[in-house]
């Protein structure tokens, strides 16, 4: 809201775009995305915009790399099985360009 008021001309080209995934950040599993995908595509179509979905499929698996993570929250996030689930969702989804 603040950026829309502060930079209206800069953000005007993006006004009709749909962005999703922040509220489920880190949990964009196949079943979650499939449940909302049609609604997101319909909303983007009605607004003549594009639909963008946020995923975090990257993980840290090698022990030498895990040992370098200094933040506990990052450690939990980057080594969570949720990263594999999000990667699976991305590989399983078929996205159509309309």
Output the keywords.
two-stranded parallel sheet, flat, mainly alpha, 98 residues
Structure description:
This protein is mainly α and about 100 residues long. Helix content is about 50%, strand content about 5%. It contains six helices and two strands. The protein has a two-stranded parallel ribbon. The relative contact order is 0.18.
Chain-wise SSE layout:
Elements: H1 2-6, H2 8-11, E1 18-20, H3 30-46, E2 51-53, H4 63-66, H5 72-79, H6 82-92
Parallel strand pairs: 1-2
Short summary of the structure?
This protein has 98 residues and is mainly alpha-helical. It has helices spanning 2-6, 8-11, 30-46, 63-66, 72-79, 82-92, and strands at residues 18-20, 51-53.
- Order of strands, main sheet, comes to 1-2
What is the number of helical segments per DSSP (H or I, 4+ residues)?
Answer: 6
* Unreliable stretches covering 5 or more consecutive residues: none
Estimated structural class: mainly alpha
């Amino acid at each position: 809201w603040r950026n829309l008021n502060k930079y209206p001309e800069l953000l005007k080209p993006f006004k009709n775009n749909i962005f999703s995934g922040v509220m489920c950040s880190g949990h964009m599993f196949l079943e979650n995305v499939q449940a909302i995908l049609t609604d997101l595509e319909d909303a983007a179509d009605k607004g003549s915009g594009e639909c963008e979905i946020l995923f975090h499929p990257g993980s840290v698996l090698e022990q030498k790399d895990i040992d370098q993570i200094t933040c506990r929250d990052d450690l939990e996030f980057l080594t969570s099985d949720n990263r594999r689930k999000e990667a699976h969702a991305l590989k399983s989804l078929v996205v159509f360009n309309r």
